[in-house]
Amino acid sequence: MSAGFPDFRLGTVLATSFTGTLSERQGDAVERIPTPRRLIDWLAVYGLAVDSCTTAQLDLAKELRESIHAVATAAALQDALPASAVQVINDRSTQGRASAVLTPGGERRWQLSPTSPVEDALGVIAADAISVVAGERDGKLALCASPTCRAAFFDTSRSRTRRWCDMNTCGNRQKKARFQANRRGTPGSAG
Ligand SMILES: [Zn+2]
């Protein structure tokens, strides 16, 4: 189904999963939504189904993604939030017109307008980023310990000591690297 494109890394937090569509930002970056079609696929996974997407809308999405990344990184470092990135997030949030509706089964579903579904979906993502950065949700923004990644992720572990954006990728790689370093033996260390 991904037709040769990089797979998605699916997290449980919408906003930081979205920033994760560009991974290995400090190494060989992997673009996971290289085409409008892949953005459509990604949105569908998160219950934001749209029928079509233009390259201009993909650009809008990437602008929002990089803005969320910049703001979440600053928040994790307890730095001042970059004003231009905050503006982009606020613009997407205020221009989105999605409605949350409750299904008979008690689940939330997003209803997007027929005229601007992609913008509405981006509005939902922007609003999610706002709630995360504003500290309205149980968790803490942190940066991935992998030096080639440094993704901002939302740590919802009880102890707030999660180190990697994704256990299956960054966490595993780090563990393997440490294991190999130990096997080689570090000079001057007892092992
Ligand atoms: Zn990572």
Any key phrases for this structure?
191 residues; mainly alpha; Jann2411-like fold; two-stranded antiparallel sheet; 10% strand; binds zinc ion; ABATE; Znf_CGNR; ABATE_dom_sf
What does this 3D model show about the protein?
The protein has helices at residues 14-19, 36-45, 55-76, 83-95, 117-133, 167-184, and strands at residues 22-23, 30-31, 99-102, 108-111, 140-143, 152-155. By secondary structure, it is mainly alpha-helical. It has one domain: Jann2411-like fold. The strands form 3 sheets. It has a two-stranded antiparallel sheet with strand order 1-2. A two-stranded antiparallel ribbon has the order 3-4. The chain has a two-stranded antiparallel ribbon with strand order 5-6. It is globular. It starts with 13 loop residues before the first helix and ends in a 7-residue tail after the last helix. 32% of the residues are buried. The model has no long low-confidence stretch (mean pLDDT 92). The protein binds zinc ion. Zinc ion (ZN) binds at residues 144, 146, 149, 151, 164-166, 170. It holds the Pfam family zf-CGNR. InterPro entries: ABATE, ABATE_dom_sf, Znf_CGNR.
Quaternary organisation: single chain
Q: What pattern of helices and strands is seen along the backbone?
A: HEEHHHEEHEEH
- Distance N terminus to C terminus? 46 Å
Number of separate strands? 6
Bound molecules: zinc ion
The tally of domains stands at 1
User: What do we call the CATH homologous superfamily?
Assistant: Jann2411-like domain
Percent strand: 5-15%
What's the tally of helices? Answer: 6
The appropriate CATH architecture is Orthogonal Bundle
Radius of gyration: 18 Å
CATH fold name, please? Jann2411-like fold
Question: What class do helices, strands and sheet pairing give?
Answer: mainly alpha
Highest CATH level, the class? Mainly Alpha
- Summed over residues and divided by their number, the pLDDT gives a mean of 92
Tell me about the largest β-sheet.
Answer: 2 strands, antiparallel
Helix coverage percent: 40-55%
**Shape, per Cα inertia axes:** globular
Return residue spans where pLDDT drops below 50 for at least 5 consecutive residues.
none
